[in-house]
Design a protein that fits this description.
The complex is a heterodimer of chains A (about 130) and B (about 250).
Chain A (H helix, E strand, L loop, with lengths): L13 H15 L11 H8 L3 H13 L3 E4 L3 E4 L8 H21 L4 H22 L1
Antiparallel strand pairs in A: 1-2
Chain B lengths: L6 E12 L2 E12 L3 E5 L6 H8 L7 E6 L2 E2 L4 H4 L3 E4 L11 H9 L7 H10 L13 H12 L6 E5 L6 H4 L1 H14 L2 E6 L2 H4 L5 E6 L2 E7 H8 L3 H9 L8
Parallel strand pairs in B: 3-8, 3-9, 6-7, 7-8
Antiparallel strand pairs in B: 1-2, 1-4, 4-5, 9-10
The chains are: A mainly alpha (about 130), B alpha/beta (about 250).
Chain lengths: ~130, ~250
């Protein structure tokens, strides 16, 4: 899971960071429907966090219908993961925006500057994705 | 045998006085099977006394320390077979090498797994045939951790290891040790002032301040409900001392 990062020093609980990260990966196609996800144990080792924390994130994702557990086989992205609800999406955006705004403020960046960075970040990943193909 | 969700370690209204000086005052906390519990506090907040009570080395002035449902002071001999300890300072006979230390420990424990001790020492990249006092500090810490796990303890106590949790935090070691212990359901109790060392590692934290337990809870849930990082929580609860956190 190279594209999943968590920060133990961040106030956002780790299970929530994993949950968000996985949702993002599924939404962006980094994880496809029906594809296996790393075992709790492997992901905990990669991220260097307590397996119970990973387990909690997986449980929440399973309850939300994004993941499914196949007994004896492991955990998979659901065959048809439910699309993210509007409320959920705006909640995640708002939380991430708050973190970004706090970071920008702590760097002494102006609103304008922060907004510019956001705008260019919006175009860059798309370009990267285009290059991959 | 104990099952999941069972309380492995409990401290009940624990008070310790040395003469007229109170070092722990009415502290209650509990860790369940398989949990990683971090007891945080600055030096002098009573962490060491609490560990000594858990090990049956200190008789409480009031209250109890209970391991596996048994009184830690009364049943210390039997209980210590189920407990592994990493002491504050790595300490072992200076002239013995890791293999000889393992053989020595094997005499005290009915079920000693020498093969797994050697495998771990190797994984921690500690030479097997070098005398203990010629090892680096980090290597000594590795030997202590491997020895503490040699009898497959159900509870691992880390008593504010001087080197912090650097060894466990190392990628390879973390995965192996923490994953393996979680699979086995081993409970880990860490007394420390090394906040960075327990981030991501601890399920549950307790913060000691002025000889009392000032805050206890599941670490990630505390972060969620307070909107603070562990460092911020600690600073808010334990106060900032000379601008430093530890």
């Amino acid at each position: 899971m190279k594209n999943l990062r968590v920060d133990a020093k961040d106030p956002t609980p780790l299970w929530s960071q994993i949950e968000e990260g996985m949702r993002r990966l599924v939404a962006a196609g980094g994880l496809q429907a029906g594809q296996p996800v790393p075992s709790v144990r492997d992901l905990a080792r990669d991220l260097r966090i307590n397996p119970a924390t990973v387990s909690k994130a997986y449980q929440r994702l399973t309850e939300a219908g994004l993941f499914e557990v196949r007994r004896g086989e492991g955990t998979f992205v659901a065959a048809s993961p439910p699309p993210m609800g509007r409320a959920e999406r705006s909640r995640i955006l708002r939380e991430a925006a708050t973190r970004y705004a706090a970071l920008a403020a702590s760097l002494g960046a102006s609103r304008e500057e922060a907004a510019d960075s956001l705008r260019s970040a919006w175009t860059e990943p798309r370009r990267e994705k285009g290059e991959e193909r | 045998m104990s099952g999941p969700g069972e309380t492995v370690l409990a401290v009940e209204h624990l008070t310790v006085r040395y003469g007229r000086r109170v070092v722990l005052s009415d502290v209650s906390l509990a860790a369940d099977r398989g949990q990683v519990y971090a007891l945080l506090g600055r030096n002098g907040t009573g962490k060491t006394s609490l560990i000594r009570c858990l090990l049956g080395q200190q008789k409480p002035s009031a209250g109890h320390a209970v391991l596996f449902g048994r009184d830690a002071w009364r049943d210390r001999r039997e209980l210590m077979r189920q407990v592994g300890v990493v002491p504050e300072e790595p300490d072992a006979p200076a002239e013995l090498n890791a293999r000889q230390l393992s053989a020595l420990s094997a005499r005290f424990y009915p079920r000693w797994d020498a093969a797994s001790v050697e495998a771990r020492i190797e994984r921690f990249e500690v030479p097997m045939t070098v005398a203990f006092d010629r090892l680096s500090k980090g290597q000594k810490g590795g030997v202590m951790l491997a020895l503490a796990l040699g009898h497959a303890p159900e509870l691992l106590l880390l008593d504010d290891p001087t080197l912090g949790l650097d060894l466990i935090a190392r990628n390879t070691v973390f995965g192996e040790v923490i994953g393996e212990l979680a699979d086995r359901g081993t409970t880990i109790f860490i007394a420390t002032h090394d906040l960075a060392g327990v981030e991501g590692l601890a399920d549950r934290v307790g913060i000691l301040k002025d000889q009392r337990l000032a805050l206890e809870g599941d670490l990630e849930d505390l972060k969620a409900s307070r909107g603070q990082s562990l460092e911020e929580i600690f600073a808010a609860v334990a106060g900032v001392e000379n601008g430093r956190l530890s």
